[in-house]
Amino acid sequence: DPYSTDPERHPALHINSLKPFNAEPPPELLSDSFITPSAIFFKRNHLPVPQVDVASYQLHIEGLPGGVLTLSLEELKTRFPKHTITATLQCAGNRRSEMNKVKQVKGLNWGIAAISNATWGGARLRDVLLAAGYSPDVAQRAFHVQFEGLDKDVTGTTYGYPPDHGYPVRAVVPGTVGARNVKWLGKIIVSAEESSSHWQQNDYKGFSPGTDWDTVDFKSAPAIQELPIQSAITVPTDGAVVDRSSEEVTVKGYAWSGGGREVVRVDVSLDGGKTWQVAQMRSSEKGQAPGPSPPPGRAWAWKLWEVTAPLPAEAQELEIVCKAVDNSYNMQPDTVPPIWNLRGVLSNAWHRVKVEIRE
Ligand code: MTE
Ligand code: MO
């Protein structure tokens, strides 16, 4: 069993597939912390987790004038300044289950939690490429940087923590779909050509709702890179019961947009979208007011938001809805059918949960 050496996982995770391991945290845990604890950070693996030996680990950088540069982990850590960013990672298939309700799609049936937020640290790709001979001349001919993970060939025996997320070296491409954030990075190739990988060419692309598996031409669409504006409700969960005597309801969730665009507002409705109120946002740890905005185009981290509102007097049921707006005034589409696609990616319609009010 190639999966027998996979790491242990937190029992609270909702498992979508065991081998390879794919799992997401319960939504209400997700909005408990601005930085998602590694143990419950969503896990998306296409293959067994490779056993990477830290002592013999090598990163190869190819396609630059100086020939191949090979770096050990020690060299990566000592030759380059450590850069730290807080960035949200979201799978292209986050919220795919809502597309499945419209019409069957192909892929793991993710709920709303194939998204998490972390502080990442390490060498900047820029610094590594410059050390490997990158120059403005190269930029004239090579528009692509390809990343290869080590999870195709199994080597070594010892590995560190947290193995599910790419230890010891991962490419972090903030604002860009999870799939490009290659884990267990083994090779970087600067190239005139786009990566020929299956996941770059024949998967992770968006299509019209009218395109089916008989007519789809993967060559006709660009690979997903930046993700669209997204938000979802983590608390309460769909089907929850609220007691009339509590008089109020607190709604919580997350919001994020791709390409470093900053979420500037989240609107919440308790009546299916007829009336709206603006949620309070927090962009850092619990209780803290939102910090200053990051520089334009560099809002990599999600915002957690919250609204507490009186229970509407007449209602027996609430249809809670959220939608976010980013600083380009991109907004989420209101329903799923117009954005449905056969692969179930880019699912970002207004998120809706139904809650029953018990008298
Ligand atoms: N990198 C490697 N080497 N192997 C993988 O299977 N999965 C990708 C990406 N990088 C993957 C990978 C996908 S589709 C996503 S959404 C993210 O990693 C998930 O990262 P996480 O498991 O740290 O949440
Ligand atoms: Mo993904």
Structure, described:
Strand 4 (58-62) and strand 5 (69-72) form a beta hairpin. The chain starts with 13 loop residues before the first strand and ends with a strand. It contains 6 helices and 18 strands. The protein is globular and about 70 Å long. It has a 5-stranded mixed beta sheet, with no helix packed on it. A 4-stranded mixed beta sheet has the order 5-4-9-8. It has 2 domains: 14-220, Oxidoreductase, molybdopterin-binding domain (Sulfite Oxidase, Chain A, domain 2, Alpha-Beta Complex); 230-358, Sandwich (Immunoglobulin-like), CATH 2.60.40. Residues 155-160 have low confidence and may be disordered. With 359 residues, it is mainly beta. The structure holds ligand MTE and molybdenum atom (MO).
Ends distance:
53 Å
What is the count of structural domains? 2
Indicate the radius of gyration in whole angstroms. Answer: 22 Å
Task: Give the structural class.
Answer: mainly beta
Query: Could you spell the SSE succession in H and E letters?
Result: EEHEEEHEHEHHEEHEEEEEEEEE
